[in-house]
Specification:
CATH topology: Rossmann fold
Number of strands: 8
Shape: globular
CATH superfamily: Flavodoxin domain
Order of helices and strands: EHEEEHHEHHEEHEH
Radius of gyration: 16 Å
Distance between the termini: 9 Å
CATH architecture: 3-Layer(aba) Sandwich
Number of helices: 7
């Protein structure tokens, strides 16, 4: 089935890139063609029938590469199926509850709505203190953010599988 899907992402330390890679892998296993690229290197959307866009979240904001991609491609995204994901909260429990109900950056919400995004997921993230600079370590300590890898690969796989199923139904 030749359904080309772009999985674009913005990451700081690589955890979100690994989530995007997993989404791409699940889409390919379902028989779709998936390219996984950093948002700032994704280029022309014309070859893609669908787009999955995700970003790491810091202080309630997407990384600038993902925000710029969403803003610059708003009209093109509105013409194809789009799914959006965020990664960030660490710790145990429901990621939306950990983020106190936050699901998506408020400033980008109108654009997401105009693209008719099919879903906006939020996944647990990973925090490796060895990769943080001194200011980030200080911030993490002050907010008492749990350190470690809290990504829920089953939830990520299930979400990507639902995307694949939706795209396959539309094409068949």
């Amino acid at each position: 089935m030749d359904v080309p899907v772009l999985v674009a992402y913005a990451t700081k330390y690589g955890a979100t890139a690994e989530i995007a890679d997993k989404i791409g892998q699940v889409l390919r296993q379902a028989g779709l063609r998936a390219d996984v690229l950093p948002a700032d290197r994704a280029g022309d959307l014309t070859p893609y029938k669908a787009v999955v866009l995700g970003s790491a979240v810091y202080i309630g904001q997407w990384r600038k590469e993902a925000a710029k991609f969403l803003e610059a491609n708003e009209k093109k995204l509105a013409g194809r199926p789009v799914w959006l994901f965020s990664s960030g909260p660490t710790g145990k429990g429901d990621p939306v509850e950990l983020m106190k109900g936050w699901r998506f950056p408020k400033a980008l919400q109108p654009i997401a709505e105009r693209t008719h995004a099919r879903d906006m997921a939020i996944f647990h993230g990973a925090l490796d203190s060895k990769k943080l600079n001194l200011i980030e370590k200080w911030m993490i300590k002050n907010v008492k953010a749990p350190v470690g890898d809290f990504r829920d690969w089953d939830a990520i796989t299930a979400w990507a599988t639902a995307i694949a199923d939706a795209l396959k139904k539309e094409v068949s």
